[in-house]
Amino acid sequence: MIRFVDVYKRYPNAREALSGVTFEVGTGELAFLTGHSGAGKSSILKLIALIERPTRGQVFVDARSTAAIRARGIPQFRRKIGVVFQDHKLLNDRPIGDNVALPLIIAGIGRREVEKRVRAALDQVGLLAKEKCRPLELSTGEQQRVGIARAVVAKPPLLIADEPTGNLDPDLALEIMQLFRRFNEVGVTVLIATHDVHLIDQFPARRIVIESGRVVAGGAIEGSMPRAASAHVASPSGSTLVDSMSTFQSAT
Amino acid sequence: MSAPSVWLTRHAQTFVGSLGRLAQQPAATAMTMAVVAVALALPLFLNVLLQNTRLATEQWNQAFDLSVYLGRSVGAERAQAIAKQLRTRADVAQVRLIPPDEALATFRTASGFGKALDALGDNPLPTTLIVTPTVTASTPDGTQALQAQIAALRDVDLVQLDTEWVQRLDALLEVFRRILWLTAALLGVGVVVIVGNTIRLDILNRKAEIEVMKLVGATDGFARRPFLYSGLWYGLGGGLGAILVVGLAVALLAGPVERLAGLYGSRFELRGLGWTSTLPVLGAALGLSWLGSWIAASRHIRAVRPS
């Protein structure tokens, strides 16, 4: 579903955020993207959602090279990706029902269908009763669940989340993670960027570890070889594919 | 629901929604509409003045007669024949014959030169025909053609037509009309800029919202739509405001103008805005505001990039 091949990202007037990132996330997989703040997790998610473009290297999403997607094609492309943000990015001037409906309205879906799907999505995150509330009337955890409902309401095959539990206490964070797992169980590919190692210890899923803009562990899907062989993309820490695999296995 | 009806419903919702948003900031909205109204009211008012001047001078034009002076040697019989000939013309409404004696008598009483005239001994005045053109021929071109044709007749000495000042007035009105168009064009650009700037600020205020929309897959066109509708609302409010202002101005002027016309013995009445001028004004208001919002929204929404 997602494949990064030797991706570099340098922001204007800034240090290199990504230096030769190569990893893969298979269709239907749930994977964590971990590492310290500033390691490059957010950059990777931005490249997936085409919020940023790589300076070098290739990013494939759903077997499509994102380099081939021009500005005009970005809206259509983003409709196939659900994105959950740490700060929710909800529109505070309208009820949460309208917030969740936004992707469907943008996609031009009829009113009745929108209402039905919004209810279903809110029901999945346990907020059906609060459809008419405005975001600021809800707790942070509830707001995050609204963000998730909005991300999944259009049934995208890929869900990416940037520190979705960043502002939540452990119980709420666990609840949010379980939500993601439930979506993964029905076939959605899920990639979650988080630095909360204690939390993801409780979930048996692959960890792609990022350090200073490089993948240091967990880049390959179990049982498959990354297509950009590590021979010419030697990871800086000297860790080989075998190391990565063992890290991955010990993590699970 | 079928696709077109979904599309229509969405547009209707956005249309009403953008009005609701404007209503949330009544002062700012009213201010923008007022500026648009003033910008449109000025050329509209000038236009009303121009139309009325046209109407007034048209009535004056109709009052124009040609003075046809026959040769001194022309006798009364020949004068009658010429008058008869002129009456048969399609562009002549009326011909009045003034014999030299009558002319002299009028001149004597009107001018106060009685004694000087007595000294002449002989009546120096020729037979005069006062020719009134028909209404349709009472244009500057029409009367001039008539003048030339009468002047070419045998025994006609001179045809006098005091069109000079009519032509001056016409030229003046033309200058006035150009000024009107220039004003309208400048203020039209003003409306585009005003609405564009308002929309630009609106977009900056709602940048976060546009970012979110783009993140969940909105096209620029989708994000632009509410702003275009805001522009239309500004245009509608401004256009109606302009019509109201000019309507009031005409109502205030109607009385004095009627009195002034009365003093000139005219029953001229100030004509206000009819449907033929209000509808184009509304159209222009909507069109210009839409253009302004379209330019601003296209530029600034493209520039909003989620980060």
What multimeric state do the chains show?
heterodimer
Q: What gyration radius of chain B follows from the Cα positions, in whole Å?
A: 32 Å
CATH homologous superfamily caption of the largest domain in chain A: P-loop containing nucleotide triphosphate hydrolases
- For the record, the CATH architecture of the largest domain in chain A stands as 3-Layer(aba) Sandwich
Shape of chain B: rod-shaped
Please give the radius of gyration of chain A in angstroms: 18 Å
Estimate percent helicity of chain A. 25-40%
Strand share of the residues of chain B? 5-15%
| Number of separate helices of chain B | 10
Count the DSSP helices of chain A: 8
Distance between the termini of chain A: 21 Å
Low-confidence stretches of chain A: 225-252
CATH topology of the largest domain in chain A: Rossmann fold
Give the N-terminus to C-terminus distance of chain B in angstroms. Answer: 36 Å
The strand count of chain B comes to 4
- Tell me which protein chains meet in the greatest interface and how many residues each side has: A-B, 25 and 22 residues
Q: What fraction, in percent, of the residue positions of chain B are helical?
A: over 70%
| Major sheet summary line of chain B | 4 strands, antiparallel
Return the average pLDDT of chain B rounded to an integer: 86
Fold blueprint:
The complex is a heterodimer of chains A (252) and B (307).
Chain A: E1 2-10, E2 16-25, E3 30-34, H1 41-48, E4 56-61, E5 64-65, H2 74-78, E6 81-84, H3 96-106, H4 111-124, H5 140-152, E7 158-162, H6 170-185, E8 189-194, H7 197-200, E9 206-211, E10 214-217, H8 241-251
Parallel strand pairs in A: 3-8, 3-9, 6-7, 7-8
Antiparallel strand pairs in A: 1-2, 1-4, 4-5, 9-10
Helix pairs in contact in A: 3-4, 3-5, 4-5, 5-6
Chain B: H1 3-23, H2 26-62, E1 66-70, H3 76-87, E2 92-98, H4 100-111, H5 114-120, E3 128-133, H6 140-151, E4 156-160, H7 164-205, H8 207-215, H9 220-263, H10 275-303
Antiparallel strand pairs in B: 1-3, 1-4, 2-3
Helix pairs in contact in B: 1-9, 2-7, 2-9, 7-9, 7-10, 9-10
